[in-house]
Amino acid sequence: MNLYDTISAISTPSGEGGIAVIRISGDRAFAIIENIFYKDIKKEKKITLSEIPSHTIHFGYLFENEYLVDEVLISVFKNPNSYTGEDIIEVSSHGGILVSQKILSLILKNGARYAEPGEFTKRAFLNKKIDLSQAEAVADLIKSKTDMAHNSSLMQLEGSLSEYVQNVRQDILNVTSLVELELDFAEEDVEFVRKNDLEIKIEEIITRLKQIIESYISGKVIRDGINLVVAGKPNSGKSSLFNLLLKSNRAIVSEISGTTRDYLEENLIIKGIQFNLIDTAGLRTTSDIIESEGIKRSQEKIQDADLTLYLIDSSDDAEKIMESIKYFELNLNSNKTIKIFSKSDIANKQINRLCSDDEIKISIFEEESIERLKDKMVIRISDNGIKFYSKNIILTNLRHKICLDNVVLCLDESLKSIEKGLSGEFISVDLRNALKFLGEITGEITNEDILNNIFLKFCIGK
Description:
The protein has 462 residues and is of the alpha/beta class. The chain has three domains: 7-130, Probable tRNA modification gtpase trme, domain 1 (Gyrase A, domain 2, 2-Layer Sandwich); 137-215 and 395-443, tRNA modification GTPase MnmE domain 2 (Four Helix Bundle (Hemerythrin (Met), subunit A), Up-down Bundle), CATH 1.20.120; 222-383, P-loop containing nucleotide triphosphate hydrolases (Rossmann fold), CATH 3.40.50.300. Helix content is 47%, strand content 17%. It has helices at 29-36, 97-109, 119-126, 132-143, 147-157, 160-184, 195-214, 216-224, 238-246, 289-304, 318-331, 351-354, 367-383, 398-419, 424-442, 448-455; strands spanning 7-10, 19-25, 37-38, 56-64, 67-77, 88-94, 113-114, 226-232, 264-270, 273-279, 307-313, 337-342, 360-361. It has a seven-stranded mixed sheet with strand order 3-4-5-6-2-1-7. It has a six-stranded mixed sheet with strand order 9-10-8-11-12-13, sandwiched between helices. Strand 9 and strand 10 form a beta hairpin. Helix 7 (195-214) runs antiparallel to helix 14 (398-419). The longest helix has 25 residues, at 160-184. It is flat and about 90 Å long. The model is unreliable at 251-261 (pLDDT under 50).
């Protein structure tokens, strides 16, 4: 990547729409627009962007030689007070694939380069407008599908995690300074801090770090959603429930066993929580090679699920119902599974003997039973220790968690060095390694491979 290039890309989604936005950033952004933008249709009035105030909008026309491309609005942002820290122009044109592509092509012909994925945000990071954790929050904010994911991304974008990291970093620096200051006066045998006090300070930092690391369980769910598998024997009502929750005929519903031969996956929001809903092949023994593969995949999905809805057909005879209950008891984790008796409107007369009153009974024809199931799903997730609402920082990014895990490991090593009575040099090395891993979160210390991996996940134009 050449940071001295001027880059451009379409920042709005492809397709028909009211407007499209084409973004330009770099030293030549103003010169490019001045070459193709006129304030009047007769091409008599040009614009000198260096003479107009930053953060202003101007109406005019874009021309390619004598050919009118579109009437547009241009938004002017002068460095360093822009998103990237460079001169930026945002062209708001009429929407549509052809119009926006023509404008982008015109800009590229006049000296800009097509931007790489996430390059605008990468320049914002490299120009110190945001740190790396805030840059990652931008991507999370764009991808957020629930209010909780949106709020969590906003907190991180506003610098909550960065502030937390800086506070921890300062605490570790204070401890490191005491250790290294003592090294400078080793010959005088001066003790600046007692080893017991040093241990207490480090243990306090570890405790704080472990609290935020534990929040990753909730953070992962907020960011990526709950993996929810619908499972059960063939014809237990899995696909019907799947379709009802989605409010669409996504899965094939048939009385013929083995209709679903592979899993189907869709997303839905229930009470502000994203569920990644997976309909699986019916669990049974079969000689059909294709269906057997589908059942194998279903079992893998159940193993990886955050929550499983296990359906038992309550219209079956008592023996088959007991077989399904036995399968549940032997093969499924009860803490991560909700046992559901489906088809309650045509249930076997003995069903009350086979299931307890507090177990979920549903019918796709009884909306109230489906609402009770949704309530149960949310309660079960909360019972498993996942918190959805918190004013505290919640860790949502695996990279950040790994960095903090490494910080804790380094601090643990420093405690071991103190316990062994090792000299300050050994303690200092561990503390400085902890600082290095903290720096990786905000990007103070990082490498090009990590940066490229992060920004390649961004969309073009952001």
